[in-house]
Amino acid sequence: xxxxxxxxxxxxxxxxxxxxxxxxxxxxxxxxxxxxxxxxxxxxxxxxxxxxxxxxxxxxxxxxxxxxxxxxxxxxxxxxxxxxxxxxxxxxxxxxxxxxxxxxxxxxxxxxxxxxxxxxxxxxxxxxxxxxxxxxxxxxxxxxxxxxxxxxxxxxxxxxxxxxxxxxxxxxxxxxxxxxxxxxxxxxxxxxxxxxxxxxxxx
Amino acid sequence: xxxxxxxxxxxxxxxxxxxxxxxxxxxxxxxxxxxxxxxxxxxxxxxxxxxxxxxxxxxxxxxxxxxxxxxxxxxxxxxxxxxxxxxxxxxxxxxxxxxxxxxxxxxxxxxxxxxxxxxxxxxxxxxxxxxxxxxxxxxxxxxxxxxxxxxxxxxxxxxxxxxxxxxxxxxxxxxxxxxxxxxxxxxxxxxxxxxxxxxxxxxxxxxxxxxxxxxxxxxxxxxxxxxxxxxxxxxxxxxxxxxxxxxxxxxxxxxxxxxxxxxxxxxxxxxxxxxxxxxxxxxxxxxxxxxxxxxxxxxxxxxxxxxxxxxxxxxxxxxxxxxxxxxxxxxxxxxxxxxxxxxxxxxxxxxxxxxxxxxxxxxxxxxxxxxxxxxxxxxxxxxxxxxxxxxxxxxxxxxxxxxxxxxxxxxxxxxxxxxxxxxxxxxxxxxxxxxxxxxxxxxxxxxxxxxxxxxxxxxxxxxxxxxxxxxxxxxxxxxxxxxxxxxxxxxxxxxxxxxxxxxxxxxxxxxxxxxxxxxxxxxxxxxxxxxxxxxxxxxxxxx
Lengths: 203, 543
Prior knowledge:
The structure holds two protein chains of two kinds. Chain A is mainly α. Helices cover 72% and strands 4% of the residues of chain A. Chain A has a two-stranded antiparallel sheet. In chain A, strand 1 (4-7) and strand 2 form a beta hairpin. The N and C termini of chain A lie far apart (59 Å). Chain B is mainly alpha-helical. Helix content of chain B is 64%, strand content 0%. Chain B contains 17 helices and no strands. The longest helix of chain B is centred in the first third of the chain and has 35 residues, at 73-107. Chain B is globular and about 75 Å long. Mean pLDDT of chain B is 86; it is low at 1-13. The chains are: A mainly alpha, B mainly alpha.
């Protein structure tokens, strides 16, 4: 509270509180949306692990049939996304330097690696011998399918980001959009890292 | 004494011509978007509460085999799921979001809501999801429906509705976090806005877990049904029940505490005691209440309540923040008596009703969580009674908020006395309704999974209480309707309650971009600061 005193007829007012630094709207919104995304995958993974535990606890219980799902495709998917991390941060650095050309190239390469991830995932699905009519299949395809959908959303975000940078006379002004995109992409990749470990490595 | 640096008095603010109806929604006017949310959600609240009353009447006989008029058990279960889902997900949360979309930008001194187009999109997604929901119920879908396609549609509808609710929650929370007026630090945010921020964050953290569960249901339902089993067994309904049971059910009512905290100070004509840090204490209590309602961790529990120590401790603690808020309210009214009589009778009555019902629900939660409690529970009926108390508390707060901010939301003041009467009916009916189900479920229903049964006389009393509460709700809405017919030339006071927060600084109804000039905020009650400064200047010479 600001104290007010009077010196004769002239009120003396303490200086008002300093204006707080305003967090950026798009970044705050993206962070909140990402919290929802993280909880979605936390919930999915919890249900996956619970169902797996229940299946393995049963007498002669098993989860995935042996040899039904290989690591090759999953590793390819993971490396595609890991490679995309420096690309998307390159875009972030480029937009801060007002370098529009490098921003586009970096965003384009990131989107391309996202497409490679989807391709690797479809390879995993095609080559796995797990039917969707059993609980392990339901869990596998729902969790990984949800992540592919998330990558598609992230790629749309990349495209929007690229168009905003393209349409703006000064790319530097679009740094918040690109930074939000980078944040979204980073979390998307991190989530796949957890899924890769919990689903493909642990099996 | 605190001051705000303002140059423009409310009367001097210019009302710009504002688009109306769908035109305003298309223009991204947060007030219009909020109003659309409010009207639609009130329809679903009506559907949900009527479903609940039909259930009460149907199980009057108190036996598990003979329903009074709904001879089909599945119809009974569908009505039940419609009651809880329509009440909570399609009614209560969108009602609070609608109010918040109108009020939060005004309270924080923002010219619009964050991401206005996303907010518009969230309303239409909610409307689309609600239409799908109704269609799914009509085609024998729903959580315990008998037609697979209908259940699939119901699942999709809920996913769309939750998605819409999450987008609107992000818009509201971002507005409060990132678009506050100069000087409005987080500890100066109005209590309703604070309540909405913590509620929105908890919704954002818990409802996606339900989306994940629904996605698994959907895939399994279309292929093999090995996870959910036979659709007639009600597996979907039991596995998703955690959303409307303790502790998650408290999350839906969390904004009620923020509303009550704000109304108490204005009604009492007193400021929160800064030496005792009452305002910060109220903020902590609201946050604590929302956190204690975090129930996503029970997603794997199914219909059985969690008996873990965490669950029991949370169940006992949940009442404390509400009691603490009541204690602070007592102090506010004690100090406010020196200034004048309490005002804003209808909002005050609704705030008290909300807190009393939530406290009753909290006490029931604590008793039900004790593993060796003699109430045979919590049975499904006991949990139903407890959830009804909490949800009714939330509904009371929502209706009270419509009364309190009627000049900002609807454009004209709402009548005080009919509102207070309606609040009394909701309080009396709600307590009787909820407590009867607690007694009936706790002592007369030994079957965990059966909703019907119970003790015949308490079933009758509960049905009567439900009817009174429903009557109170309908009366409240009906008395609000005339306020909707505002005209641009109406002389509506900008600040009918001598409010403390920034929304009362602008005209009623607010202009399209809310404020001509946003004042610099130096405390949690900037308008009270202004009045005190003006009174001080008048008494001690020109400022």
